[in-house]
Amino acid sequence: xxxxxxxENIRIPAHIGIIMDGNGRWATNRHLPRTAGHRAxxxxxxxxxxxxxxxGVRCVTLYAFSTENKNRPQTEVKTLVGLIKKQLKPMTRxxxxxxxxxxxxxxxxxxxxxxxxxxxxxxxxxxxGAAQTVNIxxxxxxxxxxLRAAATAAQxxxxxxxxxxxxxxxxxxxxxxxxxxxxxxxxxxxxxxxQAAYSELFFTxxxxxxxxxxxxxxxxxxFNTRTRRFGKL
Length: 233
Ligand code: IPE
Ligand code: IPE
Ligand code: MG
Known about the structure:
By secondary structure, the protein is of the alpha/beta class. 42% of the residues lie in helices and 15% in strands. It contains seven helices and six strands, in the order βααβαβαβααββα. It binds 3-methylbut-3-enyl trihydrogen diphosphate (IPE) (2 copies) and magnesium ion.
């Protein structure tokens, strides 16, 4: 059964996580350096995220740079960090103009001071009371996040779901209803491991720079056909 996205009964996921994978292969397929793929990938973020926000998604978390991505050749890491420094502000301007707030998750102490300053500047442009959030995961790892949350909870004295979740980067955001991974791999690669407990998973062979709004609409439709039981009958 295909549901109609224009129907008023449509359930829109509150929070979508996107593993934006396949930039390197996109470039290699075109006999271009991998860095060209990363640039194309960055360009694709605003149209796709804007579309999700227009559909009423309250939160989008983007996996842009993992803790493990630091282990790539240093030339590629440098390009990625350079792209964050140069492109984050222009990339988020349109999202901010739409009234969304933009936040960054991950261990930012890894980044040079000038990049950390860009991250702080982007977040400082947020206005109070924004109803939608774009959360960009940079030097983010699910295991590191869990350890951080465990430490926060331990400090508070009692380890409960509440005290633990307070230490997650996603604290205060809605449940992660849906994870999309482009680029053909069927794994989470250390993305939102705690939050993914009951997420609906969507995998596509489409490489991130080629992923468009039509394919996102198809996934939003399919989301409506999935029966979510949360362990109950
Ligand atoms: C995803 O694309 C972007 C980052 C991990 C930074 P990749 O760079 O992993 O592209 P592939 O998977 O090698 O094609
Ligand atoms: C996941 O992609 C990380 C991001 C998209 C930022 P990777 O390309 O790093 O994942 P693996 O290495 O295929 O698991
Ligand atoms: Mg990859």
